[in-house]
Each structure stands twice: as structure tokens, then as C-alpha cells.
Amino acid sequence: MDTAPPRTPPSEERLAERLAAGPPAARAPRRATAVRLLRDLGRIDRAVYRAVAGTPAPVLDRPVRRLSRFADRSRLWMAVAGVMAATGGRAGRRAAGVGLAAVAVDSAVVNIGFKVAARRRRPDRDLAGVPEVRWVPMPHSASFPSGHTASGFAFAAAVARVLPVAAAPLRTLAAVVGYSRIHTGVHYPGDVVIGAMIGAAVGEAVGWGLWRADVVPRFSWQRSAP
């Protein structure tokens, strides 16, 4: 019995239309190429998602779920900023402020910009077999990109402008948060990867912009003369 080829998800169809923008004569071949590319990438994305869902990890399930929940509404990054402000002196307070500013800008960019434009559907956890012990509430927003991941990498990139020593641990924590969104079944891996890239770019831009505007004094990046 013949089977029809898999239908490209609606969100990928819409993105293909945008990528194929141009004169009508050129639009059809561009759209066909874009659809093939997005279909292949989507197939890989869903395969990795199913692989994570099907890999038993009982030691990780509950801790990763709790971390993912704590990162809701950027609570994790606000808590980290609070610790930095309380224990890091003047540089810690400046780093906390810059990091939270980056999170605010990133949230607007992701939620008002990318999610509205892409409108990718969330994964089907039941169909993929994600164990219920991993589940967190499924957000109602679009799946692409991961806002949790973007916020984490935005915070890390901006803070690194003021406290370079914090860059590695914060980026590691942001990466773990990103993985948690796949582990709990609420995001595809591609959502997380692109979210990390967007967040890092926004965080770097915000940190650099505040530095250039002298909102964050330049001595934060270099040792003052005795």
C-alpha cells in the first residue's frame, strides 16, 4: 500500500513562504528548496527529541524537572542576580543589573518577535513517549525558540561583560536549563539551539550597549590603576 509523504508542519510552511519571498517567477523554486530544507531539519529535530524521550534517566528526571520549573518567568536568573548583588560588591551589583536588563530585552525579542512569527507547535509528549515523571506544565506560547534558554544565555552573555569570571558557570547553567526543556518534553532541540544563539546575541548587544553608553563604567572590565 502506498503511503503519502509526510506533510510539512504548518509552521515550517509559513517559514518557507517567508524564505521564498521575492518575484513570483522565482518564488516557487525558492519555496520548494526551503520546504525541503525545513522538512529535513524538522525530521532530524523530531528524531533527536524522540531519542531523548526514549532514553531512561531516572537519576535526572526529578532534578531536571525542578530546575526547569524554577527557570519559569526567569526566576532562576533573578535569584542568581540577587546572590551576585548581595555578595559581589559593586561589580556584582552592576553585573546583576546588566544581566536582568538583557533578560528583559531578550524576552521582548523572543516573545513578541520570533514566537509570533514562527508559531511552531509544541511537541506531542504522549506521542513521543516522554515519561510523565519528567513533565512540567506545557506552555501555551509557540515552541520556537525556547524562551527559557534564550533568557539564560542573554543573562550569561551580559554578565560576562562585567564579570568575565562568571561567564563559564553561567553559560553552563544556561545550557543545562536548555537541556531541561527538551528532557521535560516542552521543546524540540532546534528550539533550544536557536534560543541559545538569540539569547547570546541579545545579551552581548545589551552588555556592549550599556558599556558604550557608560551606564556600566569601563573600570568594571579592567583593573584600576593603583
UniProtKB/TrEMBL annotation:
GO cellular component: outer membrane-bounded periplasmic space; plasma membrane
Primary location group: membrane
Entry keyword set: Cell membrane, Hydrolase, Membrane, Transmembrane, Transmembrane helix
Compartment(s): Cell membrane
Gene3D superfamilies: Phosphatidic acid phosphatase type 2/haloperoxidase
Membrane topology, from the record: Multi-pass membrane protein
Any one Gene Ontology molecular-function term assigned to this protein's record: acid phosphatase activity
Entry-linked PANTHER family: DECAPRENYLPHOSPHORYL-5-PHOSPHORIBOSE PHOSPHATASE RV3807C-RELATED, SPHINGOSINE-1-PHOSPHATE PHOSPHOHYDROLASE
Official protein name in the record: Undecaprenyl-diphosphatase
Species: Geodermatophilus sabuli
